[in-house]
Design a protein that fits this description.
Layout lengths: L1 H21 L18 H14 L6 E2 L1 H17 L10 H7 L5 E8 L4 H9 L2 H8 L5 E8 L5 E9 L9
Parallel strand pairs: 1-3
Antiparallel strand pairs: 2-4, 3-4
Length: 169
């Protein structure tokens, strides 16, 4: 009987912990766990905006210039087999080269097998979570690639108006 009570307590505790996560990380569409190379733009938009909606943030639109800059970063990280925001080319340089002139923030990831996994990783990191849920950004682009080592690299760049960041007095 003691084992059953202890087991029940552990199950109840795990269920409580998981239910607390549900408000911040919704069940993503099955497509979010698809092979990354098979993800469509629509699947990416749905997955990102599902997490934003579950956390009270408005939906973002997709921006192909930000996707180009994210692809550049994912490929750079894969070529160097290193995860970093700056591998000799800054975020500002990458988005400017892609033709984007607004304010930007970036999330990067390494080793996540699916979109759902990388989103969960970003939600578990305070700084990445802040970018993913920011109301100051209004659009994003996302890209992933695999290094010759087999490691998968992810980059998401969020963008919006510089005005959203100005402090008026």
């Amino acid at each position: 009987m003691l084992d059953l009570t202890r087991r029940s307590f552990l199950v109840l505790g795990a269920a409580t912990a998981l239910s607390a996560c549900a408000s911040t990380m919704p069940l993503l569409p099955a497509s979010a766990s698809a092979h990354p190379a098979e993800l469509t733009r629509e699947q990416i938009i749905v997955a990102i905006n599902a997490v934003r909606a579950a956390n009270g943030a408005p939906a973002w639109s997709y921006n192909s210039q930000l996707e180009d800059a994210a692809r550049s970063q994912a490929r750079l990280m894969a070529s160097k087999n290193t995860m970093s925001h700056n591998l000799g080319v800054t975020l500002r340089e990458r988005v400017t080269t892609a033709g984007y002139m607004g304010a930007v923030g970036e999330n990067v990831g390494k080793g996540y097998a699916s979109l759902q996994d990388v989103i969960q990783g970003w939600m578990n990191s305070p700084s990445h979570r802040k970018t993913l849920l920011s109301s100051k950004f209004v659009e994003f682009g996302l890209a992933t690639t695999t290094a010759s080592s087999g490691k998968r690299y992810w980059a998401m760049i969020a963008g919006g108006s510089f005005d959203a960041w100005r402090v008026y007095q």
